[in-house]
Amino acid sequence: MSTIAENIAKVGVRIREAAQASQRDCGSIGLLAVSKTKPAAAIRQAFNAGTANFGENYLQEALDKQVELHDLPLTWHFIGPIQSNKTKPIAEHFSWVHSVDRLKIAERLSAQRPAHLPPLNICLQVNVSGEASKSGCSPDELSALAHAVTQLPHLHLRGLMTIPEPTDDPAEQRAAFARLRELQQGLNLGLDTLSMGMSHDLEAAIGEGATWVRVGTALFGARDYSTP
Ligand SMILES: *Cc1c(COP(=O)(O)O)cnc(C)c1O
C-alpha cells in the first residue's frame, strides 16, 4: 500500500468515527482531497485508493494536472481565491467552486459556464472569524449574496464554505463551524452543502454538519512552497 493509500484509509477512519460520534451517516460526508502543490502522480495514487474529488487553489497548476490526468474520471473543485480575470477557465474546467465571496465573480462564472455543461456547483465562502485578512464575505453580506446567486442561470448554489481562524481548542473549532451551519439554516434556501473542516479540525466540522471535508496535509503530507 502506498503512503497516500494508507493516509486515505486513516482519514476514512477519522471521518467514520466522527460521524458515529454525532450519529451521522458517514455516506453524507464527502472527502475532498486537496492536492495543491502536489504532483499529478500523487493524485493518481489517491484515485487508485478510491478518491475521485480533488480540490485545487491555483488555476494554472490545476489546469496542467487536469491535462495530465484526463484519462481518469475525476471531479475537480476550485477552492482558492478567485481573480475576476480568471473566471472563464474556472467556469470551463471545474464542477464545483467553493470560494465565491462576491456577486461579480458569481455573475462572471454563470455567464462563462459553457451551455453544454451542467450548472456549476457553488459554495459561498463566509468569514466566520472576522479577521480582516481572510477572504470570504461577512455574515452580514451573506443573505443578499446568496439570494442573488440563486438567480444566476448557470450556477447551482449548494451551500457555504469557511476557513476559520486556526485553533487547537476543539470548542472554538466547533463554535466557528456551528456559526456556518446556523448561517446556512438562517438562509432557508434548502442548501445541502457545508464545506468545512481540514486536516486538523475535520472532527469538529463533522460534528457540526460538514458535508465536504477538505483535506490536504493528512493525505499528501506537508506542502513545500519553495521553488525547485
Ligand atoms: C490548503 C487548503 C485546505 C487543506 O488544508 P490541510 O490543512 O492541508 O488539510 C483546505 N481548504 C482550503 C481552502 C485550502 O486552501
From TrEMBL:
Cofactor(s) recorded in Swiss-Prot or TrEMBL: pyridoxal 5'-phosphate
Name by which UniProt lists this protein: Pyridoxal phosphate homeostasis protein
Keywords, alphabetical: Pyridoxal phosphate
UniProt GO MF annotations: pyridoxal phosphate binding
InterPro entries: Ala_racemase_N (IPR001608), PLP-binding_barrel (IPR029066), PyrdxlP_homeostasis (IPR011078)
Function: Pyridoxal 5'-phosphate (PLP)-binding protein, which is involved in PLP homeostasis.
Positions carrying N6-(pyridoxal phosphate)lysine: 36
UniProt entry tagged with the keyword Iron-sulfur: no
Family recorded in the similarity comment: Belongs to the pyridoxal phosphate-binding protein YggS/PROSC family.
Domain Alanine racemase N-terminal: 30-223
